[in-house]
Amino acid sequence: MILFLNSLLLALRAIRRNVLRSSLTVLGVVIGVSAVITMVNVGKAATLQVQDQISSMGSNLLIVRPGKRSFGGPRMSAPNFREEDMEAIMREATAVERLAPNASTSAMAVYGNENLTTMVTGTNNDYLTVGNWDLATGRSFSAAEIRGGRPVCIIGNTVRTTLFGQSDPVGAVLRLKNVSCTVIGLLASKGESMRGDQDSIILVPLRMYWRRLSGNRDIDMIQVSAKSQGLTTLAKNQIEEILRRKRRILRGQEDNFSVRDMQEIADALAGTTRVLTALLSAIAAVSLLVGGIGIMNIMLVSVTERTREIGIRLA
Predict the structure, then answer these.
(1) Which residue, 98, 200, 232, 242, is most buried by CB atoms nearer than 10 A?
(2) What is the pLDDT of residues 77-120, one digit of tens each?
C-alpha cells in the first residue's frame, strides 16, 4: 500500500513538472476516442433518419419510374409514362388503392417583389394521401380543377415564408412561368430530407401543368399505395404486368421501368449508410492511431529524459 502511494505521489509530481506534455498526452487520447465515438454515432443517426423517413411514407407505398437502374447508379433511358398508363393501373390493378402521378419541373414563383425558384409538381389529390402530407390551411383541388386543369396551386411552407412571410397565402395570386396561379392551400411543414427541403414545392393540377407549364403530357413518376401492406407484392406484380403490356415489352426483354416498394428502397439506403458508417469509422480509427503515435512519442521522450534517474534509483 505504501509502495502504491509513493508511486502515485511520484507520478503526480512528474505530471506537475510537465504540465504541457501531460496535457498533450491527455488531449491525444480524448481526440482519438471522441473521433471514434462521434463518427460511429453520425453513421447510426443517418441510418435512423433514413428509417424514420421511410416509415413516415408508409409500408404499402410503391414508386414507379421510367428506366431502370441499381440504387444510386445511372438510369437507363426510357420513355416517360403517359396518362393511359396511369388509367390502366387504376382500372386493372385490383390491389392498388390510390395513385398519384408526378410531373415535375423547376420554375420561378413570383409574388410582388419576391421570387423563389422551386419545384413545381403536376399531380392530383392522392399525392397528399400517398405522401402523408397534411394541409395547414386552405383546401385540396376540386374535381373541376383537376378535370379542367385550372390555374390553382397548393404551396409548401418554404414557398409561403419566402413569398408571403407569415401572412396567410390562401387566395393570393402568384406567377409561375408567367402563368397566374391562385393559391388554394398551404402544406404543413415537413422540413429537410435526404433530397433537400421538402417544403420548397408547389403542387398544381396535372392537366394545368401539361397545358401551361410543360407543353407535353409526360409523367415522370407514379406513386402508388396498395390497399394493405400484405397486398404490396401483388400490387407490384400487377403494375409490372400492365406496364409491360402498355409499353409493348416482349417476353424475355428487360423492363424499361422500375417498380420499387419501400422495403427495397429501405434496404438500398441501409446498405449505403452502412458503407458510410464504415468509412467514417475508418477515418476515426486513423485519428485514434495518429493520437496513439503522438502519445507514444511523448512517453518515449519522457522515459529517455529520465534514463539516468531511473538507473540511479535501480542502483
Answers:
(1) 232
(2) 688 999 999 999 999 999 999 999 999 999 999 999 999 999 99
Q: Return d(Cα 244, Cα 252) in angstroms, integer.
A: 11
> Which of 213, 212, 163, 206 shows the shortest CA–CA distance to 183?
163
How many secondary structure helices (H) and strands (E) does the chain include?
10, 12
Measured CA to CA, the distance from residue 231 to residue 297 in angstroms comes to 64
In which residue are the cell numbers 378535370 written? 147
The total number of structural domains in the chain stands at: 1
110: left (phi over 0), alpha (psi -120 to 50) or beta: beta
Give the cell for residue 201: 414545392
**Amino acid identity, position 1:** M
The answer to whether position 35 is within a domain reads no
Residue 151 gets the label, from left (phi > 0), alpha (psi -120 to 50) or beta, of beta
Sign of CA dihedral 258, 55, 125, 195: negative
Q: Is 72 part of a structural domain of the chain?
A: yes
